[in-house]
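TA notes, week 10

Several of you asked for a full example with nothing omitted. So below is the full record: structure tokens for the whole chain, then the designed sequence directly under it. When grading your own attempts, check the secondary structure regions first.
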């Protein structure tokens, strides 16, 4: 599926490989190549969990920004939960690897029911990493 932003459409696949799907969840991997590998602009439609099994550093850019404004630093086992909200999808963003080796993380989309929240909420995470912008925004419908 894709969503329009002006004259642009963006994929809603949050990873490069779908590894599992049933009526309740979709599980994706996102592998970023070493030395600046990028997963290009995409957007999230569903609340989701992101798991970094190994340590890594990445940065993100939201569509319309001129610079990479979000940093993620993950120790092994870093987990984030993102409430996209029923007013979503999230603003498109892309992610770039800052490591000298490939990094892979897993995205688990909760697809069986609409989000209980009407809007995006700050990212919740364990104590094994952080993101510098936990409020990555959702589309406001004014695009």
């Amino acid at each position: 599926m894709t969503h329009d932003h002006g004259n642009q459409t963006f994929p809603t696949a949050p990873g490069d490989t779908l590894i599992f799907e049933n009526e309740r969840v979709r599980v994706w991997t996102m592998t970023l190549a070493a030395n600046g590998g990028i997963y290009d602009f995409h957007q999230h439609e569903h609340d989701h969990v992101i798991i970094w099994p190994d340590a890594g550093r990445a940065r993100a850019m939201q569509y319309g920004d001129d610079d990479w404004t979000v940093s993620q630093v993950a120790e092994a086992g870093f987990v984030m939960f993102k409430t996209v909200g029923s007013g979503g999808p999230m603003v498109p963003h892309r992610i770039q690897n800052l490591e000298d080796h490939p990094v892979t993380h897993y995205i688990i989309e909760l697809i069986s029911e609409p989000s209980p929240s009407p809007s995006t909420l700050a990212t919740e995470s364990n104590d094994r990493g952080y993101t510098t912008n936990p409020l990555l925004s959702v589309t406001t419908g004014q695009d």
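Residues 35 and 99 are 6 Å apart (CA to CA). Use that as a sanity check on your answer.
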